[in-house]
């Protein structure tokens, strides 16, 4: 940008031109809040994994189960907020939803990831209900 400053003193006009370029910060993504390492739930339950990340430019965040990218659906809500926070919410969890969930943040300067293991189990018949 360029700034032109003008002032008058004792009947004379003075001016000075200043030029500068703003350099953008260059920061690879960093997770400020990591996922809980292991989360348990029962069949039919609900679970959320929350994160907070930073980076410049702001990183793109994607979720994976194992090696496969997760897409939002009726039972899977993915939220990414402008402040770098976000979460994935899994509803009506089934046994087959168990596994390693990874949150991956990327920008042009790098990548960061954090993971959590979802452990689900089936509710069996009550021992006292026989």
UniProtKB/TrEMBL annotation:
<dbReference type="InterPro" id="IPR013783">
    <property type="entry name" value="Ig-like_fold"/>
</dbReference>
<dbReference type="InterPro" id="IPR013098">
    <property type="entry name" value="Ig_I-set"/>
</dbReference>
<feature type="domain" description="Ig-like">
    <location>
        <begin position="29"/>
        <end position="119"/>
    </location>
</feature>
<keyword id="KW-0393">Immunoglobulin domain</keyword>
<dbReference type="InterPro" id="IPR007110">
    <property type="entry name" value="Ig-like_dom"/>
</dbReference>
<protein>
    <recommendedName>
        <fullName>Ig-like domain-containing protein</fullName>
    </recommendedName>
</protein>
<dbReference type="Pfam" id="PF07679">
    <property type="entry name" value="I-set"/>
</dbReference>
<dbReference type="InterPro" id="IPR003599">
    <property type="entry name" value="Ig_sub"/>
</dbReference>
<keyword id="KW-0963">Cytoplasm</keyword>
<dbReference type="InterPro" id="IPR036179">
    <property type="entry name" value="Ig-like_dom_sf"/>
</dbReference>
<dbReference type="GO" id="GO:0005737">
    <property type="term" value="C:cytoplasm"/>
</dbReference>
<dbReference type="InterPro" id="IPR003598">
    <property type="entry name" value="Ig_sub2"/>
</dbReference>
């Amino acid at each position: 940008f360029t700034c032109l400053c003008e002032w008058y003193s004792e009947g004379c006009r003075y001016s000075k031109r200043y030029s500068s370029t703003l350099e953008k910060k260059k920061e690879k993504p960093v997770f400020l809040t990591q996922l809980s390492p292991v989360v348990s739930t029962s069949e039919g339950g609900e679970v959320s994994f929350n994160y907070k990340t930073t980076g410049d430019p702001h990183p793109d965040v994607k979720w994976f189960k194992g090696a496969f990218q997760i897409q939002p659906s009726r039972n899977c809500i993915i939220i990414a907020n402008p402040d770098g926070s976000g979460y994935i919410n899994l509803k009506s969890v089934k046994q087959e939803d168990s596994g390693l969930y990874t949150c991956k943040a990327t920008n042009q300067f790098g990548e960061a990831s954090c993971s959590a293991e979802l452990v689900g189990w089936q509710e069996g018949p009550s021992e006292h209900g026989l």
